[in-house]
Amino acid sequence: xxxxxxxxxxxxxxxxxxxxxxxxxxxxxxxxxxxxxxxxxxxxxxxxxxxxxxxxxxxxxxxxxxxxxxxxxxxxxxxxxxxxxxxxxxxxxxxxxxxxxxxxxxxxxxxxxxxxxxxxxxxxxxxxxxxxxxxxxxxxxxxxxxxxxxxxxxxxxxxxxxxxxxxxxxxxxxxxxxxxxxxxxx
Length: 186
Fold this sequence. Notes:
Strand content: 5-15%
Strand order of the largest sheet: 1-3-2
Distance between the termini: 72 Å
Mean pLDDT: 78
């Protein structure tokens, strides 16, 4: 029995032929009109600025600058297309949210300087505050230095209870806990 006879016998079986029909229908999907227009629009945004740049360069009698004009026009057209499709989002002040600003205690800074210890900067406090306020990193809370002596905490779109919880976490002193990690075998 040759290979062609085997393939013919397999194709004649009902289950395989229905499987092949399904495979053919899945392969011959058509592109929807919306996707086609988006694809053509993207191609136009990428190609037309270079044609216009070349035309502009030739009309200005600067034929070597066609590509440069094309890149400039591409940046302008792509920016306009991006801004018309989706406007920039509102900031925390317009969307709703809370901005907390904390300042390092100047009296304690003076005590540290008097005892020959280096002063604490706002950058030194960022990582511990992140671990305390947002330990899992899943919240959209921004904690950043605000000068040398201040820290800014931006909390977007939360209720007052969450803001009070964050204030409490920042204002309360940390706790140091000890645990015995040795087992009976050690």
